[in-house]
């Protein structure tokens, strides 16, 4: 006759009988749901923090011989890491419940990483992206924008309810007892699991039965019972089909994903193709039409529903660079590898005077750099200045380059620890189209690692044919604050990026402002730091999107005017609306 342990009268307090102390580490039994103080345990749990949920624990009273405890710590998911971090921040603060995502939550996880989990810490961009994604879980966290900053709080306001995630405690128990169980022992385990349902009912009455980020004891018993008959297929909810059925015209969830920062994995601009991170355009007037029409069923999502994602800081671009170059986490320092290859900044300029600095951090023997300004069509796998789209200054002999033609410029060039300045002066252009960025909404959309990108194909022949020299445009280089003279005059019109080319293992650190080591004092016109191009980039992209929407807007029909109805009788038929909608991604100006 197997032993049957009655758990209905089991105490939910620690062995010592003391009350809970949320400021100290406590562990919860996955069967009886009691909390035990870490110092009251007979085994070592290793380093832990309060409110950790990535473990499974069986207390003495629930164990097989009622003397040994079982404890298993698991790798923490980012949902669990964020829950633990917010719970600790909330407990340490007497009044605050919302915490800054960037100033408090991420630094806490970064500092306490070794206590929270034993998995290897990710690099900074990947860590930030993973935390951002986890904090977007609306069932676990509440987000609010306070004073222009994203603040996060736990949806579960009662810290006493935060406990471990006990998905399959029966597997954990079976792995910690004798694998060659006798029939009696197997029945004992089953009786423990089945009787946990009674404990769940009692604990729910006391208010301690539900905890954030974990399964209830009811699910424990159901999981145990499900082991009697193993399922060969995934369980489906009754309304799963209706919930997952995609409505006609609905953009899938992954394709609606709004990037908060540049993704950790991205496609590089190479082999004649360029990729621009996209985000849903909330101002697109065609959203409803896209949902209502059937013309796009089974076809790619039209580009007019998205817009380009613009970074909030002026940095070196992650994907607009040669793949061989290595960027530091701050995205302002770049190191070369093997032959010449290039990287551009994230924000361009098209008119006015602009300045940025670089410091040659390291330049070992047989390495070199070419630094200057380049348009988007400049080849990233060659040094800047080998084509018509770039102008550069070489470290060796101080030669300047444009269209692969080198000219003597300054004596001696520059070397390690030199601070170089780059000033570009672009006069106002006659055609406003030159000042606007390229038109992205007419480009096809592609998906890469669950993010959406505009895919653009480079047309070098058309780009070269459209180049037009400016009247008075010039580039001036500075070395340690000393003007080296005008390097180029009457440069081509266009949008220019700060550009750095590195040969083998040299390292360069960029400074896009607003403060500089040697700001130019002899500029013929007032200049701006490259960081000031951020608001202008926002404005030009917004204007470009507005022009697109206006040029494709429909004419409104007054149904109270018979003449208007007669003139437009066929215009607003279902077929005609579909035909016009199918042309929304056509170029703005033919």
From TrEMBL:
It comes from the Eukaryota. CDD domains: PHD_ash2p_like, SPRY_Ash2. It holds the Pfam family PHD_ash2p_like. Residues 197-206, 214-226 have a biased composition (Low complexity). GO terms for cellular component: Set1C/COMPASS complex. Residues 351-516 form the SPRY domain. Keywords: Metal-binding, Nucleus, Zinc, Zinc-finger. It is found in: Nucleus. Residues 197-246 are annotated as: Disordered. GO terms for molecular function: transcription cis-regulatory region binding; zinc ion binding. Its main location: nucleus. This is SPRY domain-containing protein. It comes from Adineta ricciae (Rotifer).
